[in-house]
Each structure stands twice: as structure tokens, then as C-alpha cells.
Design goal:
single chain; alpha+beta; Gyrase A, domain 2; globular; binds the ligand C[C@H](O)[C@H](O)[C@H]1CNC2=NC(N)=NC(=O)C2=N1; PCD_sf; Pterin_deHydtase; EC 4.2.1.96; Putative pterin-4-alpha-carbinolamine dehydratase
Amino acid sequence: MNLLELHCEAQHGAHPLSQQTVSELLGHLPQWHVEGIELVKTFMFGDYYKTMAFVNALAWVAHAEDHHPDMSVHYNRAVVRFSTHDAGGLTLNDFICAAKAEALLPRA
Ligand SMILES: C[C@H](O)[C@H](O)[C@H]1CNC2=NC(N)=NC(=O)C2=N1
């Protein structure tokens, strides 16, 4: 499955994913982990400008996908948390947007 090729779909009344499916999808996103009902990663940057550039790019992705992370923004890092409010837990939407957040990073 290529998460980057997928798009978020409305999840009103949907059930959250099973633990097993969450574990399988985490295999696509090795730098992310689950905290409660959230998919979380701390992105590190060299300075505030780079942090804000990423935050704004991710806001644009969130707008395009109509799926919105909680973010805490600091000088050199942004903590990104995805969860699907409409389902009360994790859905494929969270993994799609996490993959799209990863894809924003410059190549190493
Ligand atoms: C109507 C609209 O599609 C929904 O309210 C979307 C908007 N963004 C969302 N973002 C997140 N993180 N979870 C949702 O359930 C959600 N629902």
C-alpha cells in the first residue's frame, strides 16, 4: 500500500482501526508511534523559520485532505498528533496524512 497515493475520506460514524491494522500501518511509518488514540511524531528542525515552513506546509496538506493534526510548535521542533475525531480513534486518514507529512521533509 502506498499511503501517498491515497486521499482522506469522511469518517463520520466510522469505527477506529483494530490494533492489528494499526500495527501493520505503523510498519509504513517507522518514526511514528501511538500515544493513546493519537499517531505522534516530533519533527526536529534547525531553527524557527524551518519549523514554521514545515508547519505551514502541513497546514496546507491538512486543508487539502480535510484532516487536521494537533500541533505544538517550538523553536526547533513541531510535535504532530493525528487522530480522527469523527471516529474517536485512529483511521486510515491519520496514516495517510502522517505519510504526507513525512514526504514534506527534505531528502537526507
Ligand atoms: C466535515 C469534516 O470533513 C470533518 O469535520 C473532518 C475535518 N477534519 C478532521 N480532522 C481530524 N483530525 N479528525 C476528524 O475527524 C476530522 N473531520
